[in-house]
Amino acid sequence: MHYLLIALILAGIAITALYGMGRRTKRESQPRDSLICLYKGAAYSRADVVKKLRVLARYQRPQERPVVTATCYMVIRDGPGDSVTGKPVIRTVNYVCTTCGGKTVYREQDLPYDFDLIRGQANSIPNIKVTPLEQEFCRHCSPRVKHPYLGLKINYPGTSDSSVIRGATGDDLRLIANFMKGDYSVLAGDERQKQDNIARLEKLLGVRIDQ
Fold this sequence. Notes:
This protein is of the alpha+beta class. 41% of the residues lie in helices and 12% in strands.
């Protein structure tokens, strides 16, 4: 009698454990946030980018009440001079090429980009691969270039399809980032600004909204 009672208790414990395991496995097999997984993993083609441009073209920014703010002015003075001669100190920065590893020395005012910031902005853009092209700033890679410009290469993941543009800026990277993240309210201040942004995005991304 005691053996039968113990067997029944053990069988009940086993059934309860199996039931709980089955529910936990089913629950764990479902993605915690399917929208986030889809957003991070989605690779955009040119056709996908064109669809997003058409969404931006139809977007109407909600009307906002004007906010009156104080205007501040900053007086910009020349940097401190040499303590002995009184002449302005020429500050230099070293540009290290990401292609050959060579070093090029620039006067601070002659290097218009913070390349660490530029690379970080490019890496933060989702769904497409954006690569800054910096070779023109390297005296070893581009010894004949007197007026270097930043370039951008756009790769559409999963394909060999790419687009290259010369003469990009940090503002262009912010424009692409806001567009790819769907932050249309930033891009559509008014109709003219929106159309200007669409035209610039077409050039940067190598697409046409009417294609």
